[in-house]
Amino acid sequence: MKIAAKIATVVFALSISACTALAAQASVVPDGTSVPVQLQDNLFSGVQTEGQVIHFKTTADVTVPDRGVVIPQGSDVTAKVLCSHKAGMVGQPGKLSFAPESAKLANGTDISFRHDEFILRGGDNRVGAVVLTCIAWPCFCINGGNGKAHAGQTFTFVTGPADAPGQTVASN
Question: Which pTM does this prediction carry?
Answer without folding.
Answer: 0.69
